[in-house]
Design brief:
Layout: H1 2-14, H2 37-40, H3 43-52, H4 58-70, H5 74-77, H6 88-97, H7 102-112, H8 139-170, H9 181-195, H10 215-223, H11 243-261, H12 264-294, H13 300-320, H14 322-332, H15 346-354, H16 357-360, H17 364-367, H18 394-401
Length: 414
């Protein structure tokens, strides 16, 4: 089945070129300067990988591994496209994991049912609780693969395309009022990678939740769980993009102008800010499954989903606080002493993130309260200090002392 679909993917890529396009379509509402439909269409490779493993059975896992290592899925394995200079946001991850290709190492370990060998944030994919319920026999491994490639590998590719735009400008590829096609195409490619082709031109969804296969889709999937859909940030309508996606696409649009103008400091600023906001759905996903594992769930699927969302979120937390990361990781580790074996402490995970939101560049109101299908919140989010007229209470400050501390990466001096 996947052979014929792969040919379709290659045909789309072969006929797409920004240099000869007669018309340029929007990408999830963003108006690119160049035709990046070929880049956007590469989400079909991610879709094919997930289709192959869709029944979550162990024979499908074997087929998925073949596709990833030897089929068209090698595209995912060999990312990022641009490797010359590592973006500062990606460098946080490589330092945290102690592995320049941590995203592939995670996937290979998950396929093999083995443990990772990272400096931080390890997982043991041989040690799921074996509670598959109505899911397939290898659901834990397959969820660990699918969501790692769709979200964390995707994040690396987005940041590296942004870095390529910066480097093209820095190398002198700029011409005042005419811009620079190479730099603009790299920036547009970052957007196309983030959104993918399946989000269409407007980035909306169907009422029953028809999503794409890239990071943009993750935020849309989580927005109704947290009542953070639409421009108001108070909706659960699945037809509306996630509020944070609207914000990220606005940042991409502003960043495009910075690339056009050759404004290096602002390109760096927008890249960093986009990276921070991408952290919102990763945190939302981590918290959603942390809550479920704190209330009795020992399912392989939920252990894997919590762990793989944390795989993308933990480096951002560690950058701000080693102590906060350690507290949350103890609860969430795949193959650890808690997740899947007994109720974890949701408060430890929630507080680890919330006490470090400011450093992570996200806000309480961007993450929101967890509803997860209920009419009343299962967990109420924190309150942003900027909305208060007084200092946080003594109890709040005391609570956060357990979760803040030495950062994983020293902040730059002003």
């Amino acid at each position: 089945m996947f052979i014929s679909n792969s040919r379709l993917i290659l045909a789309i890529l072969a006929t797409s070129s920004f240099s000869g396009a007669a018309a340029i379509d929007r990408v999830a509402g963003y108006m690119p300067s160049t035709d990046v439909s070929g880049i956007a269409a590469k989400d079909l490779i991610q879709k094919e990988l997930q289709t192959i493993m869709g029944d979550e059975e162990c024979n499908s896992l074997i087929e998925g591994e073949k596709y990833y290592n030897n089929g068209d899925g090698k595209y995912l394995k060999n990312l990022p496209t641009y490797k010359k200079n590592i973006n500062e946001e990606v460098a946080v991850y490589t330092k945290f994991y102690g592995d320049d290709t941590f995203y592939d190492s995670w996937v290979q370990a998950a396929f093999a049912g083995q443990a990772t060998d990272f400096a931080n944030g390890n997982a043991d994919f041989s040690a799921f609780p074996n509670n598959i319920d109505d899911d397939g026999g290898c659901v834990g491994q397959e969820e660990s693969v699918k969501k790692a490639t769709a979200y964390t590998t995707n994040f690396v590719e987005v940041m590296q395309f942004a870095q390529l735009a910066y480097d093209n400008v820095d190398d002198g590829c700029i011409s005042q009022q005419n811009g620079c096609t190479d730099a603009l195409n790299a920036w547009d490619s970052a957007v196309a990678t983030f959104a993918g082709s399946l989000e269409g031109t407007d980035g909306g969804n169907t009422e029953d939740g028809s999503y794409g296969y890239a990071l943009y889709a993750l935020a849309d999937k989580r927005c109704d769980d947290y009542e953070k859909c639409g421009p108001s940030g108070k909706s659960t309508e699945r037809t509306e993009p996630a509020t944070i996606n609207i914000r990220i696409m606005e940042l991409f649009a502003a960043g495009s102008q910075a690339v056009y103008a050759g404004d290096l400091p602002m390109i760096k600023y927008y890249t960093k800010t986009i990276s921070e906001k991408i952290g919102v759905p990763l945190v939302q996903g981590t918290l959603r499954y942390a809550y479920r594992m704190s209330t009795g769930s020992t399912k392989d699927k939920e252990v894997a989903e919590g762990g793989v969302f944390a795989f993308g979120a933990f480096p951002k937390l560690w950058k701000c606080s080693k102590k906060g990361f350690s507290k949350a990781y103890t609860e969430m580790k795949i193959g650890g002493n808690k997740a899947g074996k007994k109720d974890i402490s949701f408060d430890n995970v929630k507080n680890a993130f919330e006490c470090n939101y400011k450093c992570m560049g996200i806000r309480c109101d961007e993450v929101g309260s967890l509803y997860d299908g209920d009419t009343d919140p299962r967990s109420v989010t924190c309150v942003d200090p900027s909305t208060q007229c007084k200092r946080p209470s003594k109890a709040e400050r005391k609570k956060c002392r357990k979760f803040v501390g030495k950062p994983g990466i020293k902040p730059p001096k002003n």
